[in-house]
Amino acid sequence: MDITSVLIGVVVGLVIGSVLMFLFLDKIMKSRKKGMIEDAVKEGQAIKKNKIIQAKEKFHQLKQDHERKVNDENRKLQSREDSFRAKEKNLARQIDEQARKEKLVESQVSMLDSQQDLVRKREEELNKLNDQYVNELESIAGLTREDAKAQMVNALKDEAKTDAMTHVKEVMDEAKMNASKEAKKIVVQTIQRVATEQAIENSVSVFNIASDEIKGRIIGREGRNIRAIESATGVEIIVDDTPEAIILSCFDPVRREIARLALHQLVSDGRIHPARIEEVVAKTRKSIDEEIIEIGKRTCIDLGIHGLHPQLTKMVGRMKYRSSYGQNLLQHSREVANLCATMASELGFNPKVAKRAGLLHDIGKVPEDEPEIPHAILGMKMAEKFGEKKDVCNAIGAHHDEIEMTTMISPIVQVCDAISGARPGARREIVESYIQRIKDLEGLALAYPGVQKSFAIQAGRELRVLVESEKVSDKRAEELSFEISQKIQTEMTYPGQVKVTVIREKRAVNFAK
Question: How far apart are CA 183 and CA 189, in angstroms?
Fold first, then answer.
């Protein structure tokens, strides 16, 4: 029992101790909680105070910015207001000045009106006095004013007409005499100083062969060789009964020359088949192109022409294989170039420019393509394209009057071209056909009523028609010239162009016995 009571006492003591310990700990926890709450309240108050201070500072900053912007706007408004006031003062001053000027003008106008009235009155008085004097003079002379004026005008007109006609006749006679003399002198000297060469070209070349057996080899099996040659060269090959000869026909002399040289090499080599034909034609064409360029360069060196574009140099070389009415184009162009240089020197112009224009005047005849425009215009465009000067281009384009002449070199080129083409033996033409063409020209003009005589001159390049002045008026003469030119153009075939000149004159003939 003692042990049980002791244990109970111990247990009770432990329970009481635990309760006391719990109460003590609870008191401690309550005191710590109260301290933490107080610290949190103090910290919240401090944060609140800081936020209030920051808000006040932000408000003061925004207030200052707003005041600054308001002040800036006020200053701008004040400056605009000052500007408007200044403009208003200036406008008021201008209005006052304008009003003052208007008053001054009104005063001057009133003064002018008064002066005009005074002048009008004096003018009326002078007119009355003038009429009185005129009436007195008319009564004294026995003529009216209009009659006297008419007599004086007629007398002065007749005298002036007589003097003018006399002076004009003297000037014209002197000018004709000097011009004819100088022109003949220049043309004769020019022609004498240039050596002329003759060349005849046509559209057919003859290729000679050693024997007729070669014809069969050229034709080939089923004609394959001749077809290959024609296809590669663009030349028509005619193999007929002509002994030891084959005819090459083509309007392009360059192609004919390529075909002739290629055939010569094929026949000499003996190997004639399509593949070999294409190879030889290609080599021959390349060789001809190089020869054309070399001919152009050599021609320019011979004539002393420098700085010519390579394409123009090549065209000059191609002239060797071209002909114009049977006249070799390169020889013709060289001849015209020398004539132009000589004539330009005689006339005091630049001979180098004239020689350049003379050499290039027919380059429109040797393009690789064939455009449907006159060769003079085509040559002018090509010269412009390759950088030739304006006077050279104008001379090329105007040498057949397709465009207006703007420089003195142009008529020189035209005249020298005509001289080179019109000289005897320059161009090939059958005599019978030439005579027949001349007769047809003259007969065509004689068929019109009022035509008295007609003459074809300058190798048929000009037709001069003499008409009767009683039957054909000046206006009809112009119409007749146009009608004849149109009929020649539609009904006849001729080289170059034909100039139609209708001449009408009135002659008064009397005899003193």
Answer: 10
Helices 145-193 and 2-141: crossing angle in degrees, nearest 10, is 110
- Exposed, middle or buried by CB within 10 Å (0-12, 13-18, 19+), for 345? middle
> CA 203 to CA 198: how far, in whole Å?
17
**pLDDT surpasses 80 at 481:** yes
- Burial grade of 362 (CB within 10 A; 0-12, 13-18, 19 or more): buried
Radius of gyration for the chain, computed over Cα atoms and rounded to the nearest angstrom: 57
Instruction: Say which residue the tokens 């690789």 belong to.
Output: 368
Q: Using one digit for the tens of pLDDT, what is the confidence trace for 383-394?
A: 888 888 888 899
C-alpha distances (whole Å) from 410 to each of 197, 320, 418 are 24, 24, 13
**Which of 350, 376, 373, 371 is closest to 361 using CA atoms?**
376
Residue 126 dihedral angles phi and psi, to the nearest 5°: -65, -35
CA 204 remoteness from chain centre: 39
3-state SS assignment for residue 120: helix
The rounded distance, in Å, linking the Cα atoms of 302 and 299 is 5
Q: How far, in Å, CA of 73 to CA of 351, rounded?
A: 82
Q: Alpha helix locations (H) across 348-473?
A: 351-360, 375-385, 390-398, 409-422, 431-446
Report residue 380: phi and psi, to 5°: -65, -45
Predicted confidence (pLDDT) per residue in 151-195, tens digit: 777 767 766 666 666 666 676 667 666 666 666 566 655 655 554
* Residue 151, C-beta contacts closer than 8 angstroms, at least 6 positions apart: 143
Q: Cβ contacts of residue 295 below 8 Å, gap of 6+? A: 316, 317, 320, 330
Contact 27, 20 (CB under 8 A): no
Tell me, yes or no, if the pTM score tops 0.70: no
Per DSSP, which regions of 166-316 are E strands?
A: 204-208, 236-238, 245-249
Phi-psi region at 492: left, alpha or beta (left = phi > 0; alpha = psi -120 to 50): beta
Q: How many CB atoms lie within 10 A of CB 349?
A: 18
> Can you tell me the mean pLDDT for 141-145?
66
Nearby residues of 217 by Cβ (< 8 Å), 6 or more positions away: 225, 272
Q: Give Cα 88 distance to the centre of its chain.
A: 59
